[in-house]
Every structure is written in C-alpha cells, then in structure tokens.
Design goal:
Blueprint lengths: L2 H6 L5 H33 L3 H29 L1 H18 L6 H15 L2 H12 L2 H33 L3 H21 L11 H8 L12 H4 L3 H11 L2 H19 L7 H27 L4 H16 L11 H29 L5 H30 L3 H23 L9
C-alpha cells in the first residue's frame, strides 16, 4: 500500500466525538433522573405533598427554560469547547448541592441551579454534531448521543440502591453524580476541538465532514432576530408538543408504577431499565432510518417528516396504560412511547442543522428548548394538581394528554415548513 493511499484514507475521529457527547448526555440525565427515582423515598423522609413535588419539578424546568434561552447564545459565542465545559462544571456543582437540602424548598433551589446549567447539554451537543458531521450522518449521530439520556435513566435505578446501601444515605447519590461530570470534563478538554483544529483528524475526514459546506465565519445574529423565521418556530413548536411528555415519563414514571403496582425503590430497576433500554434503541433506529432514506436519495424533507410521523403514531397506545392491571403491559406501552419520543428527538434536533447554518445551531436549539421547557413546566404543575385533587385517577388524563402531542407537532411543522430548505442569513 502506498503512502498516498494511507494519507487519503480518512480518519473517523468524529465517532469518538459522539462518544464524548454520549457520555455527557448520560451524566446529564443521570443527574436529572435522580429526583424521579428518589421521589417516593424523599416524599416519606422530607414530607412534601404532590403539589410541592410539582413545584420542585417546575422549578427545574423554569430554570432550564431560562438557561436554554441564554446558554445557546453563549455557546455560539464562546465556541463549543469552552461553552460545553462551562455548562458541565456548573451542573456538577449544582448536583452536589442537592445533598445539602433539608426540605422541599431546598430541593427546589438546588433544581434551579441544575436547570440553569444543564440547559447547555443539548445546544452544545447539537452544535457539535453540526460541526463534525455531514447532513447524511447527522440524524444517526444525534440518535447515538441522545441515547445517553436513556443510559443515564437506566443507570439511576441500578446504582441508587447500591450507593445508598454502601454509604448509608441518599445524599451521597448526588455527590457522586457531580463527580461524574468532572471526570468527563478531563476527556473533553483533552480531545475536543473543531475538525480543522483537531490533531486527531486528517484532511480526508475534514473534506467528508464539510461535504460541500465549507466553514463560514462571522455570522453574528441574536436569537431575537431568529424569531422572524418560520423555521425557528417549526423547531420550537415541534419540541413544545413532545418534550413535556418526556418530562412526564421522567418525573412521574416511577411514581406511577409505585402508585399503581406498589413497586418500591429496589423493585423499580427492572421496569425502568426495560423502558429506557427500549427507548435507547428507538432513538438510534429513528436516526438511522432518516439518515438511510437520505443516503438512498430521498429528500431531507421527506426523510425527516416520514420518520417523525411514524414516531407520532407509535406514541398513541400509551393512552391505555392506566387501565391495565398487568405491569408487563403498562411497561411495554410506556417503553414503546419512550422509544418513539427518542426517535422524534433524534430527528427534531437534526432538523435544526438541516435548516440553519452551524454558527447559530446552538442559539436556535436553545430557544426551541426554552419554549418546550415552559410547556414542560406547565405540564408538571398540571400533573401535580391533577394527582393532588384526583389521586391515581389523574393518571388517566395525564397519559391521554401525553398520547396526542406528537401528531399535533408534526402537523405544525409541516404547516410552517412545507419544504425543508436551509435558510440564508
């Protein structure tokens, strides 16, 4: 083999970057999922009501909404390397502060800090994918890193009982979760740079990544100016009708299983691991389907929308979950809906980089996540009030609401952006 042939063979370091994003997203969701798993235990020990728990959840989401609005712009200005590092540093500290909480107000304040800082994960990750991958691979790569959200959710029910048994207190769960973030930070600062600045990438891989999209510098536009574009609202509303449902699974999934079937902290592991393992495959498969369609010559418009429509249809059976006396059926349909959500997310995040230049991807993602998180905050208050007033019967309404959001979302996206084409700023 000649030296020239070796030189022309592209490196594949972009997949190592996906590994870093996967790790960060795993830690991100492990941190935020702890509250949902520990809720039955903390409700007994701390003594909060359903409404107060709703306030705790809503406080995270309110802060997350503010954080995503601001941090996407910060990441676009600081750059992905330092913007993401700042976010992870702050959320690791915030996670540890939960250990100092003594009442529901203390938890709410800690959740505010966590929400503000964890808001950086997805704007930074989506921007990283836009920087490191051509369009034909972005949805698949996004599905892979987004799988970390499910791995974090899987780790939580498995590790929490072990940590409590080893250290004797739930407070150590939050301390150790914060240390995971600092561990990730070491690898991020060693290995991450833009492709053209990375010592691990050759010119062949750079050419493949750019794929006719050379880096354009000096685009400087605020999120306020982006509001005039229908494409911005298509992404924002697409997330608005889907993300609150995911928050519902995240914060009330364990509580529903505890209320309906009497599942305690130690018994939660198997059903929750099942749900999020299935969800993980959903995100990877959903991203792979639209990426495969594009490689086969289908348009980006058709590939993204048909995959998202299929995801929306798969969510519908979740409305039947509260009516089953079988935990197997309940877990199976929640798992199907969670998988469909992750497929949806892999594609809606990729739509941002389909429609917008790389330099504003974090800003658009941040704004869209702010809109959807406000919806999640309203959902949290609604579910908390519903369960406080109606008891477990309130889950009937909550799951019914959860089943239809995605169909509305794909309808709104199609109305606003009938043909997905990149905008010119």
């Amino acid at each position: 083999m000649t030296g020239k042939t070796i030189q022309n063979k592209k490196t594949n370091f972009r997949w190592a970057i996906v590994g870093l994003l996967f790790f960060a997203t795993t830690v991100n969701y492990f941190d935020r999922f702890l509250m949902g798993i520990l809720a039955p235990l903390l409700e007994t020990e701390i003594g909060w009501t359903e409404i107060q728990y709703g306030y705790i959840v809503a406080s995270f989401q309110f802060a997350y909404a503010i954080g995503t609005l601001l941090i996407g712009y910060v990441i676009d200005r600081l750059g992905t390397r330092w913007g993401f590092a700042l976010s992870v540093t702050l959320w690791s500290i915030a996670s540890m502060l939960h250990a100092a909480a003594r009442n529901w107000v203390g938890f709410a304040l800690a959740r505010v800090g966590l929400g503000l800082s964890e808001a950086g994960n997805f704007p930074a990750a989506v921007k990283t994918i836009a920087e490191w991958f051509p369009k034909k691979e972005r949805a698949f790569a996004t599905g892979l890193f987004n799988g970390g959200s499910n791995v974090g959710a899987i780790m939580a029910p498995l590790l929490i009982p072990l940590i409590i048994a080893q250290f004797g207190s739930w407070r150590w769960v939050f301390v150790l979760s914060g240390l995971l973030g600092f561990f990730w930070l070491i690898f991020w600062l060693i290995f991450y740079n833009k492709p053209r600045q990375s010592k691990f990438v050759n010119q062949a891989e750079i050419d493949f990544i750019e794929d006719g999209e050379p880096e354009i510098e000096n685009i400087n536009i605020s999120w306020i100016k982006l509001l005039k574009y229908r494409q911005t609202w298509a992404v924002a509303l697409g997330k608005l009708f889907a993300d609150p449902v995911w928050w519902f699974y995240l914060y009330w999934g364990a509580k529903f299983l505890n209320s309906k079937f009497g599942i305690d902290l130690k018994e939660l592991a198997l059903p929750l691991v099942t749900i999020y393992v299935v969800a993980d495959f959903g995100g990877i498969i959903g991203g792979a389907i639209s990426s495969r369609l594009i490689k086969k010559g289908k348009t980006v418009n058709f590939s993204r929308k048909i995959t998202m429509l299929g995801s929306a249809l798969l969510v519908l059976p979740v409305m039947t979950v509260p009516y089953y006396s079988s935990i197997f059926l309940s877990v199976a349909f929640i798992a199907l809906a969670a998988a469909a959500h992750c497929s949806w997310s892999a594609n809606i995040f990729t739509v941002v980089s389909d429609l917008f230049p790389k330099q504003v991807v974090a800003t658009v993602t941040g704004f869209a996540t702010t809109v959807s998180t406000i919806g999640g905050m309203i959902m949290a208050l609604f579910v908390g009030y519903l369960l406080n007033e109606s008891g477990s019967e309130g889950y009937n309404i909550a799951f019914a609401v959860a089943s239809f959001g995605y169909l509305i979302g794909i309808g709104v996206i199609h109305l606003l952006v009938p043909k997905m084409k990149p905008i010119k700023l």
